[in-house]
Every structure is written in C-alpha cells, then in structure tokens.
Amino acid sequence: MHPAPSVIIFTVFSGLGFGLLFWMGIDATPPTGWVGFVFFAVAYIMAVGGLLSSTFHLGHPERFLKAFSQWRSSWLSREGIASVATLITMGFYGLGLVFFDVAWQPLGWLGAFGALMTVFTTSMIYAQMKTVPRWRHWTTPALFLLLSLAGGAMLAGKIDVSLPLLVLATGLQVLAWVHGDGRFVASGTSMETATGLGHIGKVRAFEPPHTGTNYLMSEFIHVVGRKHAMKLRIIAAVLGFLLPALGLYFGDNHGIFALAIVSHIAGIITLRWLFFAQAEHVVGLYYGKR
Amino acid sequence: MTQLPKSTDKKLGLVIDLDTCVGCHACVVSCKGWNTENYGAPLSDQNAYSGAASGTFLNRVHSYEVQPEQGEAQLIHFPKSCLHCDDAPCVTVCPTGASYKRSEDGIVLVNESDCIGCGLCAWACPYGARELDAKEGVMKKCTLCVDRIYNENLPQEDRQPACVRTCPAGARHFGDLADETSDVSILVAERGGFDLMPEQGTKPTNKYLPPRPKDVEPEFDILAPYLTPIAQDGKGFVGWLDKALSSLPGGAK
Q1: Residue A73 touches partner B, C-beta closer than 8 Å
Q2: A57 touches chain B (CB under 8 A)
C-alpha cells in the first residue's frame, strides 16, 4: 500500500492525542488551570491536527459532513462520529478543569471511553480489509490501542503505567510483524485464484494492460520500502520502544522524558510507515506483483 | 445507503469468454469512449502524450501466460472490470453512502456528488475495479453502461454495455445471471464458468469461461521425419570449425 504521509501523520498523532485524552479522562486527580490547559492543548492539537491531516488525501474534502451518515456499515463513518463526539465531550470536561477548577468526572469517563472507541474504529478501517491480509488480524486493533495508550500515558506524564504498556506493545508489535509476514500466503489468494486459471497451470503476468502506470499500481503496489523492511523494523523498535523505555526507567528529569517522547513518536512514525509500505494488496497479483 | 440489499431482483452482469478473447482491447477503448462522455465525470488522462501516461479506465485487459505441468504454455487475454459482486465489500466501507448496490438489478454504482474521494472502496475491492479519477477526485467504476441498457433512445441492439456491443470476437456476453434460463446462465452452466478470487467471499456476478485446452498438433508433414536434424553435437566439418574458432584468442568455448 502507498504510505501516504497524510494518513501516517493522521494515525500517529490522532492516536497519541486520543491516548492523552483517555488518561486525562480517567485521571482521579486531573490537572486544572494553566497546567490542565497545556495538557488539553497538546491533546487537541495532536488529535484535531491528525484528523485534519487525514482530509488532505480526500478528493473532495468539502463534502466531509456526508461521511457521518453511514455508521451502520462503515468503520470510517463510525470513526468520524466517535472522534467528534469524543472531542466535544472532552472539550466540556476540559472547560470545567481549566476555567472552573472542577472535574465533571462522568464526562471524563465518557470521553475516555470515546477516545478508546475512536482509536479502535480507526484501526478497524485497516483491520476490516480482507484484501490486505497483513492488516486483517486482531493484532491490528490491539496494537493501535496499545500504542495509543502507551504514547498517551507518556504524554500525560504517567511513567509507571507507560513503561509496562511500552513493553507489552513491543511484544505485540513483534508478534504482528512475524505473524503478518506469512499472512498473504496463508490467505490463499494467489495469481491462480485471481485469474481462475490455476486448473491449467502456473500463471505468469505476460503483458500489463497498459504501458504506463495507473491509480491501482501507485496506490496498492509499493515495493520500494520493502527491501529495507528489516532495517526499518530495527530502527522503529529502537526509537519507538527501547530508547523511550530506557529513558523512562533511568530518567530523572523532564528533559530526558521529553526526549523519550520525541524518540517514541519518531519510532511510531517509522513503524506506521512500514505498516502501509509493507502491506500487500491482493490486486497486485493481477499485475504479477505484490 | 451503503448497506447491501438482502437480495436483488435481477443480477445483471457479464460473462467473459477467455477462450475467445483475442486481447484486442476494443472493449477498453469503447468503454472509455462511451463513459467519458456520458454518466458522471469524464475519465481523465494525465500526461497523455508523454512517456509517463496514465489515466482512468473502467475496463482493462491483462495478458497471462499459463504453463501447464506438461505441454506448451497458453497465452490468455484477460479483460477485467467491476464484477458487480453480491457481497460487494466496496459498498459497505463507503462512509458517505455514495457507493450503492441497486436492489432492482444488482448494479453497483457511485453517486459522484456524494463521493468524498477517500479511496476506501478501492482498498476494499480485491479486483482493482475502482479507480479514483485524478482530475475529478471522485471514484469511477464500471456502471454496466446503465445509461445504455435501459436507454429507449437507442436502437434495441445497442441496449447493452459498450464493451459487449463492440467486442469483435464475441467474447463478452451480457444478461441476467439470476435467471437460470437466460442465455448467459446457460453459457455459464455449459462451459463451467467460474468466479475470480472466490476465497475473498465477494460472490461476484460476472463469470469467466475457461479457455479450452490447446490442441495437440499431429505430425502433419510426412517428410518431416526424413529431414536431417540440425547438428547439435558438431561432428565432422562443423565440429572442426567449432574447435578451430574456439581456439582463437577470444573465441567462445
């Protein structure tokens, strides 16, 4: 799949933003006043910035309101609704904290639930794709949620929770990578089933339909990044998990924690890039490619 | 509404005969010609006169070489467009309701004025039947020439999809696949029509007819066995020449 920057920025930063909102929502002693304002500002800049970024890959962003209508069947529509509902709920909760010094706790819990739902619905946009076997697995939503919670906890300054979450996320990411590598073959879709000609023999793409490229090839067949996949996985794991975990464990001041967060974000951007660049869409088979 | 209808009254679709298709791409051209100037946004091209031309097509013809375990390889031309699936995954993922499947005839269409161009339906389609138009920013797909098949301004023989009407080989057939007595259904039954990627669970309406096995050519030239075969081992003069040339500096061994 084509790793579009707008979608990578969207999933990484709205994941972090909603993760932070989750921890704000369930915090028994949430920050108030100016400190609360800063936390909420960071969360909203990330969550809203990410959502806005996702509209850049739309052909007609001005029609975005229509995307709230099909929640019965569409995960993208559900995500739109969950995100707006969460942002409004947490907006009121933050209003109370920042300006009135009160925690309207039920609103916070509701907003925290909404933040989780938003991240879950985002992940299901990918996990539902039968055409992309690497994504269609329970590890996709689990990892999106875990990374959002871990990153959110780091941003919220909850070091004692973020450390075990980071360790869990590392394990799950490795499982997702290793298991994901075999899923395309395991899905049973091949050039033989794609063409229905397997009963005759081995199928080879002889001539493409056109001399140039097309939308399908640029959107779904991305081979450039894959040859560096192993190196990028190591870079992502070191930046996203190892360095932040070390920083959180041994760090004793805000400077180290800030560096840990920056490193984590860089790592998550790398692994999200891989999430797209490594994912093979079955339509590539018609072009003899993966 | 992007929920799928429970059932459709008809299942209009195509039956494509891989035995007959000669790979001339006439269906591609007629499809683009009709659909760029009728229903919906035109099908744009980018850099059409450069080395890196691309454009939106609703129908494309691939060519495959299939190598059986024994015998000669077969070359098979393979036209592919929307299969108007019963369980169309492209419809249910649409966030705006722009994509829909008609309950009356099963045709899958895009209401372009509702399409936000998110591309998710193209992600969900295993067949590459949907292409986002780079100029218009909306999703384009085969309409089964919905503006021809019911068009009373056209003579009866033209009320079929442009690709079917134009195919010079008679490799494309259009009809109702829900009706077991229709010509297309009989064709599918008699020739063993099959689905593409059945494991994806999309239940496509369009069917493909398998190419028949290649004939085994009998030895038709009675003189052939008497002809001297081309020397492979290089005995006699050819053998001497081979050795002599090879021994020269830079000679092939």
Answers
A1: yes
A2: yes
| A130 and chain B in contact, CB less than 8 A | yes
Asked if B115 lies within 8 A of A206 by C-beta distance, the reply is no
d(CA A253, CA A154): 13
Q: Test A286 with B198 for CB contact under 8 angstroms.
A: no
**Which two structure tokens, joined as six digits, stand for A187?**
């899905």
Cβ pair A132:B123 closer than 8 A: yes
Q: What is the pLDDT of residues B179-237, one digit of tens each?
A: 999 999 999 999 999 999 999 999 999 999 999 887 777 766 777 777 776 666 677 88
ipTM of the complex: 0.91
pTM: 0.90
Q: Which of A181, A183, A187, A184 is nearest to A230 (CA)?
A: A181
Looking at the complex, report in whole angstroms how far the Cα of residue A121 sits from the nearest Cα belonging to chain B: 12
Closest Cβ–Cβ partner in B18, B51, B75 for A206:
B75
Query: Quick check: A190 contacting B, CB < 8 Å?
Result: no
Per-residue pLDDT at A49 = 93
Would an 8 Å CB–CB cutoff place B17 in contact with chain A? Answer: no
Does residue B65 contact residue A32 with C-beta atoms inside 8 Å?
no
* Residue A128 CA, distance from chain mean position: 14
Q: Are strands B139-140 and B131-132 parallel, antiparallel or unpaired?
A: antiparallel
